[in-house]
TrEMBL record:
Pathway: Cofactor biosynthesis; NAD(+) biosynthesis; NAD(+) from deamido-NAD(+) (L-Gln route): step 1/1. Homohexamer. Gene3D superfamilies: Carbon-nitrogen hydrolase (3.60.110.10), HUPs (3.40.50.620). Its EC number is 6.3.5.1. It is an enzyme of class 6 (ligase). One of its GO terms (biological process) is 'de novo' NAD+ biosynthetic process from L-tryptophan. Keywords: ATP-binding, Ligase, NAD, Nucleotide-binding. This is Glutamine-dependent NAD(+) synthetase. NCBIfam families: nadE (TIGR00552). In the C-terminal section; belongs to the NAD synthetase family. CDD domains: GAT_Gln-NAD-synth (cd07570), NAD_synthase (cd00553). It comes from the Eukaryota. PANTHER family: GLUTAMINE-DEPENDENT NAD(+) SYNTHETASE, NH 3 /GLUTAMINE-DEPENDENT NAD + SYNTHETASE. It comes from Charadrius vociferus (Killdeer).
Amino acid sequence: MGRAVTVATCALNQWALDFEGNLERIVRSIDIAKSRGARYRLGPELAICGYGCSDHYYESDTLLHSFQVLAKLLESPATQDIICDVGMPVLHRNVRYNCRVIFLNKKILLIRPKISLANAGNYRELRWFTPWNKARHVEEYFLPRIIQEVTGQETVPFGDAVLATKDTCLGAEICEELWAPNSPHIEMGLDGVEIFTNASGSHHVLRKAHTRVDLVNSATAKNGGIYILANQKGCDGDRLYYDGCAMISVNGETVAQGSQFSLDDVEVLVATLDLEDVRSYRAEISSRNLAASKVNPYPRVKVNFALSCSDDVAVPTCMPIQWRHHSPEEEISLGPACWLWDYLRRSKQAGFLLPLSGGIDSSATACIVYSMCHQVCLAVKNGNADVLADACRIVNDKTYVPEDPREFCKRIFTTCYMASENSSQDTCNRAKLLAEQIGSYHINLNIDVAVKAIIGIFSMVTGRTPHFSVYGGSSRENLALQNVQARIRMVLAYLFAQLTLWTRGMPGGLLVLGSANVDESLRGYLTKYDCSSADINPIGGISKTDLKNFIQYCIENFQLTALSSIMSAPPTAELEPLVDGQVAQTDEADMGMTYTELSIYGKLRKIAKAGPYSMFCKLINMWKEICTPREVASKVKHFFRMYSINRHKMTTLTPSYHAENYSPDDNRFDLRPFLYNTTWSWQFRCIDKQVN
């Protein structure tokens, strides 16, 4: 009858401008899809060049190399007898578009440009691309000679059209179009399109996965149909981790689910589905059928090819499954760990160095590296040859097989406790015990000699010696003395990262890991160019509250008992003198606000788009049981003063894994001035008026 169609989607770990690697992964995914009987294969958005090319999209080289890869794909035996759907930038009449190129048996069927561009948060597509604003309109696209020589075609259809095969009709969406209020799948479904495809470049945010799944399922719940979603996965050279989750849905129910986090560069989902399920589902929705009778038809590109076989009555079809979501703690354990692995192997370094203070933040960072080691050993155990080859190269041993996470951790992870006269024995012991339990190569050192040398130079030049406030010094002296300690640690971290392996007779250098959380960055509670300054930071987009929950998760799942004492200790910078041998300085006292309050301020400032006055108005209701309006006003003013005074620090913030939508990352996510009028005179006057 020709009713059972077999389709494939995939999640690929593409890398910006890695045309050779990207081509190999695309071909591998097509090979796998064909071997499992698929007749159509969908890939991620802009997979040929990699999604994160940014301003390289302006370069003609990027367009040229994309077409060169497309020519290789068209010529490849792997792409014969299967409809292939790939993503790349295309210049049409001197306008650059983000496109899907759909081809079959060395013939391009359609080039479909993106209609709704992503231009919020981390996305800047309008900077590089133009949306296709000609609904249901198709033009001729003149192919470059490199493609004409392969296909024998001079022109191909370019625009907003759908494919009509011998047995069904397919329509393409591209990433953001699923999220748009007027998604193309609505009108396409009314016009008889039965299979919707979506090529995405969607990144991980904590607690976001269910939103994407719900959108895909709801796309076909009201209108019927088959929805196929592909996504990029991994770190393609930036702060983002693309989190896979390729999926296939039928009539509002998931039938195939891909992994959200894994070290597999290529993951392919294949499903066989009954077109009659779509047709019978739609037949009884009278409101849909009434709307369909009035719809404006799409141009159809006829394809002499079927996604089904003529005799398929006995072919089994896929049944609905229950989507399994990760908990936020699992997401923190897996997402940043996979991101670190991609960064490590692609940067061709030999491991990581982390200044381990014995506090929650650096301990959480260490646990993420340990989780990465777990993922590597698991991938190798499951037969992942790519991961094994990368691990051998990183440890410089062709015969090496990572089997024990602690042993692998010892080879690629160095931790360093940098004590001063202001450090307590408790934090030293906590850092040492955690290092023992995860297996890292641990160094204990004391920075007092270096600190005294720096202060000595200052005293010799100026004739003045600064003192901590407990010894009669001013607040300026107190802060300067703290900053010297913090900055010395950064200098030593980089020195040891470059030369520690040299001292051990091993080749290579180490990437320095930072461990400032998203809340501290927002408040500016860090020293500029201290240990928060590093090569990368896996927790820079994660809140203190979530990190505490993650630490508890590690205690239970990795049996890291050393974390129990770290959890119970009050967070402290340990930069001021001890009192009777005990820590007197705490983070929350220094900041003048709690970490819980900081998370609330961050979400209101960024996600709710609240300035000082709007934040005050929201908080007098949120906190009416615990604070008077005057107390709320005082807290809001203090936050905005501290935020604006310290905003300049965000310009040098270490590249961090993006995990929260209230991240203050100044690079491209949270664009603000870094020189403020920190009195906020007009805004605060409005608050005072309401208080009175």
